[in-house]
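TICKET #2291
ISSUE: user wants both folds in one file
ATTACHMENT 1:
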Amino acid sequence: MEEAWGEDVVSKQSFRAQLFKIIRQAAEDEDLCTNTLLGTLVDLWLTDIMDGNSLDQMEWWAELESWGTRRDARRQIASDFVRDLLRIFELKLEEHDTDSFLSRMLAQFEEDSDLRFRAIEGYYRFIQDVQHTIWAQLPVTCVIGGHASGDMFGIGASALLKQNMNVVVHFKDDKPEQDHSAGMYSFFSELLGRERVRLAETARGCFDRTAFSNSVYELMRSQRLFCWLAPYNMGTYFLSDRFQKEGGTNSSELDNRDTIRRGFAVEKLRKQGAILDFLHRRVGSLDSLKKRRVLILWSRFTGKKGEYHPEHDTSFKGMAQMAWLAAELGFCVIIAGDKPILHEGVKDTFSRKYQYGDICRSLESYYGEPRCFDLTEFWTEPAWKELSGGKRVAQYQLYELLHRVCDVRHLGMRSGNMEALALLGYFVRYMEEDRSYGGERMVAWHETGIGYERILLIEPPTRVGKYIHYDRKLKVGVSQASMPPYITARNNGFPNTASRNKPRFSEQLQQFQARQTETFNSMHAMDSRRATFQSDTQQELTRLTQELKEKMTKPSDVSKYESGFTPEDLLQIREFLCLTNPRAENPLEEPPTPNPVEGRLGKLNLRQYKILSAIRTLLQRK
């Protein structure tokens, strides 16, 4: 048994592979519970507690767990194994827990009835309980990769509520085009102060475990404090515990909200007059917005930049559908967030660039007054940079001002930014399709005082989203977010797609051309050899170009889907718009009540349906 645990067992993956084999052999080996094995398992327990994101990552326990249901010798082996493991784990905890409250928690767990089998069957639940207890009561350092920029809002809010919590951001080494570590470090520093944040970076521009460890330990040394490590999902569950189910009215939750709002600098607007002037230039006088409800629609093109969840990117047609629907219900609409992505693969860049302007102008033409405004990426404008000092957190002051003056609600596909809006106390609905990858985690916030509720769509509004959605439905046990290969190829081949990625395929072509030109010029005589070489070079260049083009070609299956929301999903959006805003500081008294008609669309205003049908033809653009 012991020789199976050599020094080469250094990673969780290799450890679990070894453990899985040993557990299978344990029925014939009564020395399973050797000190060597138990000591190694204790280290894995600590790893699970600090990085236990899902039951799937604890597959090594599943085999042992199955023994608890057997009627042979394995059942007794399993229960004895868990008993000994609990005892050693308790001793290990005491080394890191001077208050020993975790040890007491473990002892209570051990005293419960039918421990031998409950401990086996409830391992994942137990790990979650220990995690949440640590996060609530002990000093913690949350570790977040540079790719997880959507999680920084929840982590930042958690650290505002938990003063003995620090943050380490590390470089995304395997996919540098997805790395936002520098911007995330800046955000956390603005929010928490630089003394509580570290950026693990190296001159080599890749993840370095030594640099990462030094960042963690340097934080501990500077604060003279031992900290448990916490995974990126800590913010989700920590905040869920702080805003209990059906909450939002008790004093502790109100205090939590106030603390978060102060941290995000929206409690006191020091430059309110300047923000009003900026808004006036972009959306006109706020006096007109006070008379109508305001819907802020969030635009997202993160997936087209080569990052996560392309199925949650914005559909131009879907945006038009929501804008017309809201206008018909008496709303003014503000489009916020990302501008459309423009790159060499877009056939009509001019049309794409002005899609939102077209929506705004068509609504103004129909109603005879401005009803829709394009506020996308306002933070890039020189006037705003001068006003805000370039700080990311300052952006929320603009939405806070709208919140104070108007009856405002926010609607967009699931993203970390939508989480921040809910935490600040605004009326928010996020959308995602059924079986959305990663969607189950945010269910922890539903029906809590946070106010982060979901509209569950039948399917995403984009063609690509539908393609991914139905492809995923055919696959069982999808382990990661899908990225169609042609999008990856475009991000590698076209500038202005992936936000931090050089167009590698184009570089390859350029390098090939340069290399062949150098070789050609080094030949002395203009003879048949040079002519043959030049011909071969041209053929190879043509082949590489054609290969790149084929990789970037959109599959025909994508085009078979129709962009836009389904009528059933539009009805769900309409129901949200017809709700009274429970968070408005100046709510309008009369809720919108369009005249309903019967039929396939249910209670959807007939005029709305005609408008939506008309723009279906007008906005059949990619």
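ATTACHMENT 2:
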Amino acid sequence: MKELKGIGASKGVSIGKAFILKDLNLTIPVEPLGDLETEMSRFHEAINQSTIDLEKIEAHVEKEMGSEHAKIFKAHLLVLKDPELIKAVESNMKENNMNAANALNEAANKFITLFESMDNAYMKERAADIHDVSKRVLSYILEEPLVTTSDITEEVILIGHDLLPSDTAQLNKDFVKGIVTDIGGRTSHSAIMSRSMGIPANVGTSTATKDIQPESTVILDGETGVVIVEPDEEQLAFYQNKLDEEQKKEKELKKLVGQESSSKDGRQVELAANIGSPKDLENIIENDAEGIGLFRTEFLYMDREQLPSEEEQFESYKEVLSTMQNKPVVIRTLDVGGDKDLPYLDLPDELNPFLGFRAIRLCLEKEDIFRTQLRALLRASTHGNLKIMFPMVATLEEYRSAKQLLEEEKVKLIEEGYQVSETIEIGIMVEIPSTAILADQFAKEVDFFSIGTNDLIQYTLAADRMNETVSHLYQPYHPAVLRLIKQVIDAAHAENKWVGMCGEMAGDEIAVPILLGLGLDEFSMSASSILEARKQIRSLSFEDTANISSKVLSMSTNEEVERFIKQKFIH
């Protein structure tokens, strides 16, 4: 038995066997061809092994999830059998004196480049298929086992050094019952996506990938951060009981589906969900979200070789808006940079990317990318209750410039014969102190604010939320942060505008009473937190929380506020 301690990033208990996600860096050898027959044999054996893999995955996915989900693996099998690709690889070996790995890599890249250049969504998808399949075949040629999240076809606890946003976005929660990583914090994107999908997760364990062996039994407690490897019978019994209690609690919370999100004395708020893609919709409907307070569109741009087209984006936005049936949907425009990179954009290396060329700054510089997204959003606007939000706005000039581009694309679309909604609200994320301080001026021009506390906290306290050395300074209840939040809410309400919060703080049980008392209108959080937040809000008096919130604003430290709220409201 071994016990690891990490950071509880997504609540819940999970018990299962470990699946180790290894980082794979395939180095393609460029040595000239040795023995032609040997290299040919190596290539065709790799094709055969890849075929066996994909047929197993396809059969399992079709049985467990249906034929629609198995389509991707059918497409991959077709790529493996493509005579043009096989012929090109063999030709590279015979005529260009290339070894098997180099021959395959060269041929695959040519096909990928060709398909990506075509103005056809179907053909662009084939490029992605070739990329995935060629990587699998290369792993066999180079005898480097390939492990991807798509290989997970049974219930496991996923163990990795870190999970990229694209890794997490691809997870199938029917199979992945828990996540453990070596690095990360509560506000890392893998943690945020885990909560969004309702998967228990512990991050920042430092040594999970070294200390946990494949197939070993693992207990994960996403509340305490504890990970137990090869537990004894007593530990298994204890955590199985805890898991049973959680399931009973979940059953009780489900009784709140359809109930109002209002305090005991009638203060009505909106409980919305944060999502990363249309695949999250099922989870937010199950948890009775009253809207979507943050659609992180950057996930549409990740895990691919090129920018998504206007049509692809339109279909995603349309699906979300239509599914929500006229409930409010706040879609954030592209927010990359910082810890979210898009390799195909070739963004500059920066000493401090969190304060650099990212979000609205990037979009205003790369107008063609921004205009494409704005067109897709405007076209989708007639399918639901769309609200558009610009991220990381620091100055009024940035907001005005972004809104001007939106208006220009609206005029163009109408001239082209498209219908565009006339009731789209335009707002900004408040995540930079300058914006919070100048909220009274912004409130005269925007339709709404959504406070992004993940960044607002780190910028206010000058503490990088991804830096474990200064993590103790990342303090959500710090009076300086709370005063900025109050300033934003008061400024908006003075202009009859509404204020939401889409940072992780919105679903925090200690923060909820404070935010309710400060007058926050919309709380947007991970879908799995909605019913718990509704239960808490229904137990509170708005009048009491308003009095309490005014008191915490005069306190001096994060610890003082946290202790006070726990004594008053957390039992």
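RESOLUTION: both attachments delivered.
EXTRA DETAIL ON ATTACHMENT 2: Residues 36-65 form the longest helix (30 residues).
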